[in-house]
Design brief:
Number of strands: 13
Strand content: 15-25%
Structural class: alpha/beta
Largest sheet: 7 strands, mixed
CATH topology of the largest domain: Rossmann fold
CATH architecture of the largest domain: 3-Layer(aba) Sandwich
Length: 453
């Protein structure tokens, strides 16, 4: 567990080339260190005017100016961590950042551990553990919809819901323990019989898990495989959707041998496109392996785009593929619609098709609409709920504890026997909320964060 009494320093922006870098300090020495490493250009100083950006020079260990930039000071408790915080807005030069950081460390700061800024914010009541997790996870979100459904604001609502569950379990335990301890006293049964109350809480948890499972593509993306016979334009369509040449395209069958994956934002939805090998019988062992991997990827995907070429028409190969790939069809795509129709037939009337040209872009907008409509249709009817793996696992254990209590009561056992299951459920909800000791909380959540968060 980190020492929370020390002043810490770390970059709050990712390493690499860029316009600006932010170096953040947190702890009681923040203002003192800032006074030593920053020389304001005018009369105003950041330590005299908290929450106001001030222009000036940043100094190294020898007092020499190494950069010009902005500094800002936040006095406790009105800061991200709830402690005194100082930020140095520098030009993004590794040499400058290193020099200023070394000066901070020489003046008493130590390097921050992963997630330590957020950890201190939770300990000081500036945010809940779930909100801190959401803030960290937002760095990996690629679409606006992900931020809306799993961002900091949503985490606050999830925390309130889990806290309500925790309160119900505590009230249930208290009532049961009172009746066990003082059987001669008269205690109200509660809003409903014990077994029904346990079942109601368990049902709510199952509902949350079901919504979370249905909503998981919002976090990881919908996996859609682009499938078809050789030379129907799979890689060309893959490139056209990505708007760049990602897959190699040639007129020779069997060019694609492996499954290519790329994530793309389609109407605010994260979609992972899989470009698969042309499916056909082959004597080439390498091509045959590629075909097998393509079929495996399609069967494991959330959905499939089945392609056929207008130039060759709907053939026996496409009919067989439709049967092999099963019922997770996102759409039937007629490619090369800019070419003349060939001698093949048309797909059965029950299969809705979209005509596209990867060369001219015709029909691509309608295809994007179709993918988005299909993806949204897979989400639960009520609002999406994105739980991370830690939260989901904790809720699953809470459900198991309640199921244990239900089973004991169903067998005619007393509430005293069933209390063990309620205790397990309560502990799991506490863990979901991050209500652990300081050491456990850091190990459970914040040690997985990036440094500077």
């Amino acid at each position: 567990m980190p020492d929370t009494t020390a002043t810490i320093v770390a970059e709050a922006t990712p390493p690499g080339r860029g316009g600006l870098a932010v170096l953040r300090l947190s702890g009681e020495k923040s203002a003192e260190i800032l006074r030593r490493i920053f020389s304001p250009a005018g009369k105003a100083a950041p330590w005299d005017s908290p929450r106001h950006l001030t222009f000036g020079e940043f100094l190294d260990l020898d007092g020499a100016a190494v950069d010009r930039g902005l500094a800002v000071y936040f006095a406790a408790p009105a800061s991200f961590t709830g402690e005194d915080v100082a930020e140095c807005h520098l030009h993004c030069s590794p040499a400058v950042i290193h020099a200023v950081k070394q000066a901070c460390m020489a003046l008493g700061a130590r390097p921050a551990l992963p997630g330590e800024f957020s950890y201190r914010a939770v300990l000081n009541g500036r945010m809940g553990a779930l909100e801190a997790e959401a803030a960290n996870e937002m760095a990996s979100f690629e679409t606006a919809l992900q931020a809306k459904t799993a961002g900091i604001a949503v985490a606050g609502g999830l925390q309130a819901r889990l806290e309500a569950l925790r309160e119900r379990l505590l009230e249930l335990s208290a009532a049961w323990e009172a009746r066990i301890e003082f059987p001669e006293e008269s205690y109200a049964q509660g809003k409903m019989p014990a077994r029904e109350e346990v079942a109601a809480i368990a049902a709510e948890i199952r509902g949350m898990l079901a919504r979370s499972n249905s909503s998981r593509p919002l976090r990881r993306g919908w996996r859609i495989a682009i499938c078809g016979a050789p030379n129907v334009g799979k890689s060309s369509l893959f490139n056209a959707i990505l708007q760049r040449e990602r897959a190699l395209v040639t007129p020779h069958p069997g060019t694609t041998r492996d499954v290519l994956e790329e994530t793309v934002d389609i109407h605010g939805l994260p979609v992972i496109l899989l470009d698969t090998a042309g499916i056909r019988e082959s004597d080439d062992p390498v091509e045959r392996l590629g075909v097998e991997k393509g079929i495996e990827a399609a069967r494991g995907a959330d959905g499939v785009l089945l392609l056929y070429s207008k130039a060759s028409g709907w053939r026996a190969e496409e009919k067989d593929l439709a049967a092999v790939l099963g019922g997770n069809l996102v759409g039937l795509v007629e490619t090369k619609c800019d070419l003349a129709a060939g001698g093949g037939g048309l797909p059965p009337p029950g299969l809705e098709r979209l005509s596209v040209s990867s060369l001219t872009g015709e029909g691509l907008s309608a295809l994007m609409d179709r993918i988005a409509h299909w993806a949204l249709g897979t989400l639960p009817g009520e609002a999406a709920l994105l739980l991370n793996e830690r939260q989901r696992e904790a809720l699953q254990r809470a459900g198991e504890g309640l199921a244990e209590a239900e089973a004991y009561l169903a067998l005619g056992n007393t509430e005293e026997v069933a209390l063990a299951g309620i205790g397990k459920a309560s502990e799991a909800i506490d863990e979901a909320l991050g209500l652990k000791s300081r050491e456990e909380l850091y190990d459970l959540i914040f040690s997985r964060f990036c440094i500077g968060k």
